[in-house]
């Protein structure tokens, strides 16, 4: 009888991946070889690999094999996003969370940002200044804030921000649709970028705090409404009653993930 079980194989592979003994991009042995090595049936091995794929540790490519995935900040963030939506997260709650996460991130970015990241932030702001369409403005605004977070080079902060990325985009629809909020908050982007460029962590954190403070002070009665409710209203106002928030968020999530991976491509 084999000393190995489904659970012990899963635990072994997971331990190898987490310890870095099997690195990202490595192709795992075929099901047949794993089955022989561990004395298990191929259906059990296949089940283990599918389980690891569902948890984001490996990627199964048809006709090519199973590869270890690189860890991304968005891993695990989707379930948190779902939880926030089920609990009807309000504009106030999201604004408070953003202040905690992004103010700290801006300060760290001033210390840790690479020249490539600073250039990518500059490109975002230049493109944002040239754009008049609200949806594209929101995408670029989100990209700028995400790049600041990424430049903190703190994986915990990145993951925390990833869990509120789509909610933040929804809130940006509200902010950018409101001329007063847009005009009040937008100039602070430049101050944030300049402080990061100048490696002034205190000024960067203060500029981010002020930016988020200025915007949230103008939300009025929307401050205690759910983010989803506010975003759906703004989207329908822009695109009509048949506009789908869910479809828009899926598209933004794909484009945002691609940009953050390769901001200068």
Describe the structure.
The chain has a two-stranded antiparallel ribbon. β1 (58-61) and β2 (65-68) form a beta hairpin. The mean pLDDT is 84. The protein has helices spanning 6-18, 31-38, 42-54, 77-86, 91-112, 115-130, 134-150, 155-162, 165-177, 179-185, 187-197, 201-216, 227-239, 245-261, and strands spanning 58-61, 65-68. The protein has 14 helices and two strands, in the order αααββααααααααααα. The chain is mainly alpha-helical and 265 residues long.
Number of alpha- plus pi-helical segments: 14
Unreliable stretches: none
Secondary-structure-based class equals mainly alpha
Classify the beta-strand content into a percent band: under 5%
* Major β-sheet annotation: 2 strands, antiparallel
The total strand number stands at 2
Q: Radius of gyration in whole Å, from Cα? A: 22 Å
What is the overall silhouette? elongated
The spatial strand order of the largest sheet comes to: 1-2
* Helix content, binned percent: 55-70%
The overall pLDDT average reads 84
Rounded to the nearest angstrom, the distance between the terminal CA atoms is: 54 Å
Q: What is the helix/strand order?
A: HHHEEHHHHHHHHHHH
């Amino acid at each position: 009888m084999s000393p190995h079980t489904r659970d012990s194989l899963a635990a072994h592979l997971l331990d190898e991946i987490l310890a870095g003994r099997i690195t990202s991009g490595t192709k795992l042995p075929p099901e047949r070889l794993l089955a022989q090595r561990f004395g298990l049936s191929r259906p059990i091995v296949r089940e283990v690999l599918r389980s690891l794929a569902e948890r984001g540790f490996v990627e199964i490519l048809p006709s090519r094999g199973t590869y270890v995935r690189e860890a991304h900040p968005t891993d695990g963030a989707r379930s948190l996003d779902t939880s926030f939506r089920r609990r009807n997260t309000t504009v106030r709650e999201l604004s408070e969370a953003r202040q905690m996460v992004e103010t700290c991130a801006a300060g760290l970015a001033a210390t840790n940002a690479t020249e490539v990241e600073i250039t990518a932030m500059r490109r975002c702001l230049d493109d944002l200044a040239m754009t008049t369409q609200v949806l594209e403005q929101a995408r670029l605004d989100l990209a700028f804030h995400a790049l600041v977070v990424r430049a903190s080079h703190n994986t915990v902060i990145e993951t925390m921000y990833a869990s509120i990325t789509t909610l933040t985009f929804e809130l940006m629809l509200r902010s950018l649709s409101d001329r007063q909020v847009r005009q009040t908050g937008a100039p602070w982007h430049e101050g944030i970028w300049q402080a990061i460029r100048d490696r002034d962590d205190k000024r960067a954190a203060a500029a981010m705090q002020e930016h988020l403070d200025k915007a949230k002070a103008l939300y009025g009665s929307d401050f205690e409404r759910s983010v989803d409710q506010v975003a759906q209203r703004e989207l329908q106002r822009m695109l009509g009653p048949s506009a789908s928030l869910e479809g828009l968020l899926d598209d933004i999530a794909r484009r945002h993930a691609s940009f953050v991976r390769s901001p200068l491509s």
